[in-house]
């Protein structure tokens, strides 16, 4: 695609994240409070995993999608750690990866968020929603 831009232009740079020492209730609360579905798991600015709302829903009856309540029921979460629930082998891209390349990765994969890593440090996150917004805005601009 002509004039394709790097994901650095559409990615979220102010990244909400958790560490291996955080608990799952904290993670769900962060997702609810910020209306997000993916949290990079980071240790010393290095990504070690990705935790999604689907991961949390898989182990609980959390009503995270429809609840405006930021309070989290922690009974089930107390039985698991972030490390046990997260996806550990996370594919990532760098900030110069084009939006089209990222879209192709999403099409052939089963995930909906890609961490953006430069010099081994997490610098952003791009989601399928970011990609869709980009192409819709581009279409309206043409």
Automatic annotation (TrEMBL):
InterPro entries: CBS_dom, CBS_dom_sf, Diverse_CBS-Domain. Pfam families: CBS (PF00571). CDD domains: CBS_pair_AcuB_like (cd04584). Gene3D superfamilies: CBS-domain. Keywords: CBS domain. Residues 11-70, 86-142 form the CBS domain. This is CBS domain-containing protein.
């Amino acid at each position: 695609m002509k004039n394709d831009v790097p994901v650095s232009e559409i990615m979220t740079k102010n990244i909400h994240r958790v560490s291996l020492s955080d608990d799952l209730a904290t993670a769900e609360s962060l997702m609810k409070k910020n209306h997000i579905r993916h949290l990079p798991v980071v240790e010393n600015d290095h990504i070690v995993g990705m935790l999604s709302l689907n991961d949390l829903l898989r182990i609980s009856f959390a009503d995270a999608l429809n609840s405006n309540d930021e309070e989290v029921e922690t009974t089930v979460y107390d039985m698991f750690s972030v490390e046990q629930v997260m996806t550990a082998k996370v594919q990532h891209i760098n900030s110069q990866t084009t939006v089209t390349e990222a879209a192709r990765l999403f099409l052939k994969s089963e995930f909906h968020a890609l961490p953006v890593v430069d010099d081994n440090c997490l610098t952003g996150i791009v989601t399928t929603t970011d990609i869709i917004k980009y192409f819709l805005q581009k279409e309206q601009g043409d």
